[in-house]
Specification:
The protein is an alpha/beta fold. It contains nine helices and nine strands.
């Protein structure tokens, strides 16, 4: 997630902690932000597998774009520069060329991910019918145990037109009244907001509008606890908030 660079999370983000209406028993879904990229490149099959090995990881968040030949692929940026070290644009390469650079297709990720894992499928572009067909094949006609999210209203509107029963989240920097109103107009079930913007008042406003709230992107475990107390349904996490890597015994 994070269309913009998220502000650092020191784990001391306790604004709103202990406010009335918090429920210490509530545990939001913990979704690995682009997998566990401490051990493998972000948005790679290896990063997703590594994340799902962790105790307490409930699922994955990943980003979808289209290749030159119209295949949904998993990559955050519009180019391969930051992660793969190449200047090429995603939209100018075929799915096979992207696969050779380590960028998986959405179909491959869905096939490799167990049904128990919740998926936050973030659209960076309007995927249209090609995207919907792949999601139907991978998660069923009802998009089981998953949600489609985006910062792009047009991408969400396209999904809503093609599959009006599928759950969608509007990704946003805040839970301002205009953001909440836009999510309602789009027919979303929720808003995924930058975690600093979430407090008891903003969550209450979203709930009055019939929306659930998710948070992105948290790196401190104490901040996950604060958000749990506020009743968010899911937290996009990485680093310490995702959990420690299991220790492996050294060979004798």
């Amino acid at each position: 997630m994070s269309e913009r660079t998220a502000r650092p999370d020191t784990g001391r983000g306790d604004r709103g902690a202990g406010e009335p209406g918090s429920d210490a028993r509530h545990r939001p879904l913990r979704l690995a932000h682009r997998g566990d990229h401490r051990v493998a490149p972000e948005n790679s099959l290896a990063a997703f597998q590594a994340a799902l090995e962790l105790v307490g990881c409930d699922g994955l968040e990943f980003d979808v774009r289209l290749s030159r030949d119209g295949v949904p692929v998993i990559i955050h940026d519009p180019t391969l520069e930051r992660v793969q070290g190449r200047p090429d644009r995603v939209a100018e390469l075929t799915a096979d060329e992207l696969a050779a650079a380590g960028i998986p297709t959405l179909a491959a990720v869905l096939a490799a991910t167990p049904a128990r894992a919740f998926l936050d499928i973030e659209l960076k572009v309007d995927g249209g019918p090609a995207l919907v067909a792949v999601l139907r094949e991978g998660r069923g006609a009802g998009l089981e145990n998953a949600v489609v999210s985006s910062f792009e209203p047009s991408a969400l509107a396209s999904i809503r037109a093609l599959e009006p029963a599928w759950p969608c989240w509007l990704n946003a920097d805040d839970l301002a009244p205009d953001t909440i109103a836009q999510a309602v107009r789009l027919g979303c079930v929720g808003v995924a907001a930058e975690w600093h913007a979430i407090d008891a008042r903003s969550v209450a406003a979203a709930r009055r509008a019939g929306l659930e709230v998710a948070a992105w992107t948290v790196t401190g475990r104490r901040s996950v606890d604060r958000l749990a107390g506020l009743g968010v349904v899911a937290v996009c996490v990485e680093g310490a908030a995702l959990g420690p890597r299991p220790t492996r015994s050294k060979p004798l």
